[in-house]
Amino acid sequence: MTTPILAADDAGFAYRGAAPVLHGVSLDITAGRSVGLVGESGAGKTTVLRLLLGLTRPTSGRILFDGDELGLRDREQMRRFRRGVQSVFQDPYSSLDPRQRVSGIVSEPLRSLGLVPSSRRSREEDPRVATTLEAVGLPADAAGRYPHEFSGGQRQRIAIARATVCDPRVLLADEPVSALDVTTRVRIVDLLLELKETRGLTIAMVSHDLSVVAALCERTAVLEHGRVVEQGDTASVLGSPAHPYSRRLIASVPRLPARREP
Question: Which residues, including other chains, have CB under 8 Å from residue 39's CB and lie 6 or more apart?
């Protein structure tokens, strides 16, 4: 059996003095099998993503990286983790530093991971920045410009470029298209599909939009009140849901487009 790149193993979480937010969540992210996390607001989806990102420590259970428990104080493991797991967030307007040029934003993971040679005096010189900007469909002059000069969809492309410049294995995305208009959403979904194919990227994504999950994810997990009530192949979960909550969730969507086959 293939070892998942990233996994939640019976993970629970509670804020101090408060009722638990997550209860025994188990979830595998395996290479080439992107996962969608769906559920109503307050179901715990973003908290699961924070645990998987190492931003929050579970109060019970474990988060595993390549089969080993993620130790936030293990500097060598965390360096490998940050190289292999990157993130994109919902709002492209607030997730980019307005004071930095795009070249500096995109190259930040290279610098923080020590992947830029010390002899290279200018971050713009790193060919990976230009290559990645081209891969996400941004113009050649984008590197020297500032975030406010771009549209919302272009800013999300900058955020995706920043997340993929170090060739991560997994992209954790929290509602990556919900702040965008419908036409732009389609373009960003197409970009993520292309990156999955060309870069071998595996995506774990929180989304309220089941059509986006259907397009991007081979597997889907349904959360209700902090518990995974159903998970499996996306076609089965969205097409023939077994749990009553999953059926109610999917029934609230007027229509789902046909899922693309890989």
Answer: 45, 222, 223, 224, 249
